[in-house]
Amino acid sequence: MLAYIVRRLLLIIPTLLGIMIINFALIQFVPGGPVQQILAELEGGGDAFSGFSGAANETVGQVASESSYAGARGLPEEFIKELERQFGFDKPPLERFLNMMWDYMRFDFGESYFRSISVVDLVLEKMPVSITLGLWSTLLAYLISIPLGIRKAVRDGSTFDTWTSGVVIVAYAIPGFLFAIMLLVLFAGGSYFKIFPLRGLTSPEFDSLGPIEQALDYLWHIALPVLASTISAFAGLTLLTKNSFLDEIRKQYVVTARAKGLPDRQVFYGHVFRNAMLIVISGFPALFVSVFFGGSVIIETIFSLDGLGRLGFEAAVTRDYPVMFGTLFAFSLLGLLVGLITDLTYIWVDPRIDFESRET
C-alpha cells in the first residue's frame, strides 16, 4: 500500500504540471490582460489606480495627475513598457511560466495585481464562506441521500418509492440558481415571508453574542445558501445510492445468503452495504469539488456571500493572473489529493480491494 501511495503522489506532479501548462497557454490567447485594462481606464479618463498594489501602484499614480490630457494625446510608450515590466510581461511566456511554477513549488503565490494583499491571505479571507457551503452541503446531501436511497432500494416499486422518485426528479430538474432565487422570494423578505436573512454569513452584532447565540446566528444565515447548494447533489446521490443497492441486492451472493437462513438485516448491512457503498464513495470527490468550487459562484452571488467562487470570477474578469493561477494550482492539488484519499477510503470500506497489485 505504501508503494501505491508513493506512486499516486508522484503522479500528481505531471498531472498538476499539465493543468497549469494548458491554462497558461490558453490565457496567452485571451485579449484584455491587466496592462490593457489599465490603459483602457487611463485613456477613458477613469480612475484605475485605487485598487492597484505594489510597485505598479506607484507607476500608475505618477501618471494619474496627467490623466486629464493623456487620453487625448495617447499614453507614452515608456509608460506602457514600464507597466509591462512591473507586471512581468516584458519577459517571454516560457520564462514567465517557469518563474511562476518555481514560486508555486515553494508555495509563493505572489500578490494580487489589483488588491494590496497576497494571494494566500486573500484566499484565507474568503475560505470560510466556501468551506461553509461545501462542507455543510456535502454532509447534508450524504445524510439525506444515503438513507433515502437505501429505503427506496428496499421498497423498490412501492408507493413510497414512486412519490419520492417524483420529488427527486423535480429536485434534479430545478437549476440551483433558480431554487436559490425561489428561496429568497419565499423566505428572505421577498413577496411572502421574512424568516431568514437576505445576505451575509453572520449578523453585524455577531461578535457581541454568546457562543450559543453565535452558533444559532451562523446556522440561521447559512440555512438558505446550503439548502440551495444541496438540492441538485441530493437528487443525483439519492438515485445513485438506490441503483447501486438494487444491483447488489439482485446478485447471486445475496440469494445464497438468504437461502442459508441469514436474516435480511444481516444480509443487507453485513454484505450488501459494503459493496454498494463503493460507487457512492467514489462520487465524493466530484461532489465535494463541484459544490465547493463550481456551484459556489452563483450561490455566493445570489446570497451576497464573499467567498472563493466570487473571488475566482472577479479575478477572471479583471485578469488578476496571480489570483487566477494561484487558486488554480492550490485547488487542483487539493482535488488530486482528495482523489487519493478516496482510494484509501475504498480499502477502509472493503479490505478486499488491493491497489498494490494495480499498475498506476
Automatic annotation (TrEMBL):
Family to which this protein belongs: Belongs to the binding-protein-dependent transport system permease family.
Pfam families to which the protein is assigned, alphabetical: BPD_transp_1
UniProt domain ABC transmembrane type-1: residue ranges: 127-346
Entries under NCBIfam families matching the protein: PRK15133.1
Compartment annotation: Cell membrane
Species annotation: Jannaschia pohangensis
Keywords, ordered alphabetically: Cell membrane, Membrane, Transmembrane, Transmembrane helix, Transport
Entry membrane topology: Multi-pass membrane protein
Major localisation: membrane
Protein name per the record: Microcin C transport system permease protein
Transmembrane segments: 9-30, 129-150, 162-188, 218-241, 276-303, 323-349
